[in-house]
Amino acid sequence: MKLNELINYMSQFIEKKIPEKYLRNFQEILLGSGIFTIASDLLASIILSIVVLVFLFILISLLFNFDILIAILFGVSIPPGFLTGLIIIKTERRAEKIEKASPDFLRQLSSMLRVGMSFENAMEDLSRYGSGPLYDEVKRAVIEIKMGRQFNESIIAMVNRLKSKNLERTFRMILEARKSGGSLADIIDDVANDLRAIIILKRERRSSVMMAVMFLMISAVIAAPFALGMTGIYSSFIGNLGKGNELIGISNMAAGSYIVIHSILVGFIIGLVMYGDFKKQHMKM
């Protein structure tokens, strides 16, 4: 049986066994992160990867006398962990692209409203000629409106998919102004200027804290491993002299654990300092 046929068979089995609402929710998560793959096919690939990795790690554990339970744990956890990390990173990068494109989008929308176009027609016109994740979501909202969904419901659903607090406030203000009959063009211009100012402030904050970030990276990558490595060498030297100690036996494990914990904490601090969110540990340099 070919690999594609096996994945298709497993995908059909998953679609029968997993309730449709769960698959639909997972599909929305994938689309929200920019992964355009059928959810059941991706789950089938993950399961197949787990089986292959578990088999490989079991062989490695038998060859190198490694704990088989830890080998199985590694094989089971790597594919889901990799997929989770990929979804988080792609979702954050997509949200950042959307926020960067939003001031220009709002300015174009304001210009179209000033020449007399309705809000719905302006949104539809922008969705035809723009490119990027923001315009893709606008295009989806326009299609939903044409299919009979209420305008406000489509816009709110689009905002929820964008996962941007700034854009959520922006479009809710636009909808409220649309209800009250205010000047949409002026409001949208003001909001676009505010969003542009926020983006500039974020960029300046990242630049101003770069020295602190470099210090944290050096401490995690060089200083802490070097200091603990010297501790391990000293412990081995003391052990060779015959001056045994119970602490020497666990020093290597303690040092390794400290490096892992220290690196994780540094990643959280860097995310909090540079992006205002401790989850954003990936560096964009």
Structural description of this entry:
By secondary structure, the chain is an all-alpha fold. It folds into 3 domains: about 5-95, no CATH class; about 95-200, Receptor-associated Protein; about 210-275. The chain is built from 11 helices and no strands. The longest helix has about 45 residues, at about 70-115.
Keywords:
285 residues; mainly alpha; Receptor-associated Protein; 3 domains; disordered C terminus
Proportion of helical residues: over 70%
- Main β-sheet description: none
Shape: flat
Order of helices and strands: HHHHHHHHHHH
- CATH architecture tag of the largest domain: Up-down Bundle
Strands, count: 0
* CATH hierarchy, class of the largest domain: Mainly Alpha
Class based on secondary structure composition and strand pairing: mainly alpha
Distance between the termini: 44 Å
Number of spatially distinct domains: 3
Show the helix and strand layout:
Blueprint: H1 3-17, H2 20-32, H3 39-63, H4 68-114, H5 119-129, H6 133-146, H7 151-162, H8 165-180, H9 184-208, H10 210-240, H11 246-275
Helix pairs in contact: 1-3, 3-4, 4-5, 4-9, 5-6, 6-7, 7-8, 8-9, 10-11
